[in-house]
Amino acid sequence: MKFEEIRDALAVRTASLVPEEYSGADAARLTEVGAEIVKLGEAVTLLFAKRAADTGAWTRTSHAVSAEQWLAGVSGTSEHAARETLTTADRLASLPATADTLRAGGLSLAQAAQVTAAASVAPGSEEHLIHVATHRGFRELRSEKERVIAWASDEAKGREQARKERHLRTWTRGYATHGTFSGPTEQIAEILAALKPLERDAFDTARRAGRHESHDAYRFDALVGLARSAAAPTAARSQNSDVVRVRVDLGSLLDGKTREGEVCEIPGVGPVPVDHARKVLSHGLLELVISDGVDVQTVVSTTRHVPVALRIAVDERDQGRCKVRDCDHTRALERHHTLGFAENRITRYGVLGGVCPDHHDLITHRGYEVVENGDGTWSLRAPPKSDAA
Prior knowledge:
alpha+beta; four-stranded mixed beta sheet
């Protein structure tokens, strides 16, 4: 069957869809089928777009000034996204395992872009990255990509490149101004750390006023607050200011170099040079998490208060993500006791986990039960006769 025939048959079937005629279980199943179709369609688009770009055939049917502009027009995406598609296609030529997985519908275009970006500079990581892409969330894949690139890159050159490429760009559309920025990771971390207390203030203010907005909106409000405070007289640094946390392997800290399989990074931001960890280690505004650290299983509390060492250990174990399987939420996580604190009166490593507000609401107010999985994640079991089942 020709691709055009497959397209036409799918178009006819889609036009006659009435989702309300399907059960909830069938709707969930067909959502997965639809996602698989999308992946295969993206693979077809990528492979043929590369061929069209390589041969210049797109110029015969388009007045676009570049292959990226042409692809953006036919796919309904931005030129930036189209450029990334063509770049991913070029990288696939030397990454056969990734290409095969993409052709089989095992990777989305976004996943393939992350895998190829790292595997193109560290070919030996290809199989590992494919495994991460197909078995973990997209957020973990993106983090692993950054680690692989850091391992394979010359640190001094990478830092200098980040410094040279630092920028803050803005453009205005209608009543809104948009922007992008880039810079050395450790400096971006300083900015984000300065925003944290202001973001919490914005969140608290909104809740008191009965408003519920996204955390991105509160972060923007925090940025405005930071700019306004800079214009005010300088005040003494608050004792409650947020500290910077650096996760580093002991071997890296001692050797001064991050080797393959090791990390030196600011959680939620990205890899940083080891000498940055050594530099901030000299003052008291650092939470240093070393892989050969103390046995956190011995930290126990009989109150709801979570000791600092235990809090750090739980955050590190869960990588700052919601503990519910397949949930990638990282912001506004709330700690949950699986044993039920009111009955057991104990706070220890094994019973603690961070969950996003939505999942915490299901557990604490709607009767969902936590089920511990063998891989350390949690699943939620709906209560009997729940409409959510």
